[in-house]
Structures are given as structure tokens and as C-alpha cells.
Structure of Polar amino acid transport system substrate-binding protein:
Amino acid sequence: MRLRLICQILALLMGFLPLAASVAHAASDIPTLQMDPALNAMLPDDIRASGVLTVATDAHYPPCEFFAEDGKTIIGFEPDVWTAIAQKLGLKVEASSIDFGGIIPGVQSKRTDAAFACLSDRPEREEVVTFINFWYGAAAIYAVEANSKITEDPLSLCGLKTAVQTGIDFGDMVRNIFSKHCVANGKPPIEVSEFPAASQVLLALYSNRIDFALSDAAAVDDIQKQATQPIKVIESPLLPKIYLGAIVDKSNTKLAEAMLAALKAVYAEGVYDKIVDKWNLHLLKLAEPGINLASTRPIKTPE
């Protein structure tokens, strides 16, 4: 896999990462879209009557979503997408940042209408929420530059230590793809630890308590510039591509269908491409949005 861009890797650096490099993206203008009455009519009655779409996110993952320099405004790739969707639907967005672990339960309990948080679409998640997919996540491995043990050969990871933030998919990826590959080739599995905070994963890496970290999506250049010591990014043929998207409660089919229809209009008017250009996420753009693509349009898992 030749995808070098990383997104959730930034989650591991957020305790130390100034926003200046990413905030520069915010200067790019995205056109305001006109409300489409037909799309507005697709909305559930309560949302259409209120004129508000409540959105939950975890605004600590640039370029997915993060706080601007004022510490209040949520900006990023996904906020630009949710704004465009809301404009087509004739809605105002009320977004709030919460802990990542509360995102899916908050949608399930209807405390919020929708959520955008670099969420990876998995069949088991589709059992409780509906995904509206509009981009990809692409995984990569990173380690401190001085670590010569790790190469592009997946077997170089066998028997090493890694850590992930609790609630993120990367632990399953290590166990179900990389460790299985190790065991199948007579090598020891990878030891995986979990920490509640992303910054703790980074500290474990820099203190040599772990050998590498795994993450997905978009901004390795910014990470390397801001890191407290040099890091390297390692590509691997086992790294999967995954669907990312927004979620709504599984029972709220009207909202899911309305958001997908609005998203298709955003694509048709060229605004999706402008948002991708703004955040330099060309390698992660999804040509055609859809619902629950992990099960309806599955991507073959590398072996």
C-alpha cells in the first residue's frame, strides 16, 4: 500500500501539537450552498421543525476535527462536510466535543442526532448505528526514527510491543491482522497495551515502553514537523483501507437517507472536491458516498 498520509496518528500527538500548521487550512473558502426544499422534506419531522442538527464529535483529531486557535470553534475536514450537508438540508448545526468513548452511546441514546469523529465503519457497529460514508481511512505504522528493528516487512513487528488509545480500532487491527500473520509464520504475536489518553501512547513510545504505534489517515508531514523527536512512517502490505463516515441512530432511517441525499448533492455541486482540496486528503476521497459500506460494499482485507 502506497498511502503515506496519516490522520489519527495526530491523536497520539495532541498533547504536544500546536494548531498553527493545521489552522492555515481554515483560510480556504468553501462556497455556501443553497437549501434544497426536496431534501429538507426528507428530514424527520422533529429535526425539520427545529431547524437544528445536533452533532457530537471529539475535536482533538486534526485534520478530522479540532479546535481553532480561539479554543471554541471546531474546524476540520468533517466540520466542512457537516456544514455543507446541513446547508443543503436547510439546517443549523450545533456541534459539541465529547470524549470519544461517548460518541456512539450518545447517538444511540438520542442525546445527539448525528456524530462525526473519524469513525471507522465496521459491521458490528452497523448493528447499533447507521453509517453515512464519505471518505477512507488508510493505516500506517510509525516509530521513532532511531528504531532500526522495524521495516516494511510485517514480520519485523512480531514479538514487539505497541499501544493504542482505548476505543480506537487499531488494537483489533494489530491482533486480527498483524499478530495472526506473525503466528502463521511461526513468530510470536505482538503485545498490545491500551491507554485512556492519546498522549499516554506517545509517552510510551518516546520512553521506549513500546516499539511502534498504528494509526489511520491524513497528516504525517505536520506530525513529523511538530514531534518532540524524529519519527518515521513505515508502510506495510498488510495495512488495510477502511471506510469512515458520520453516524446516526440505527432507527433513524429518515435522517440517514436525508443526509446521504444531501451529501450526494454536495458531491454533485463540486463542494466535496473543494473540501478535499482544502485539507489535502486526495488519497482518502471516496468517489461515491453510501450507507453502511463496510457491509454493502466491503473492502477486501489484506492477507
Remarks:
- Confidence is low (pLDDT under 50) at residues 1-24.
- Residues 253-268 form the longest helix (16 residues).
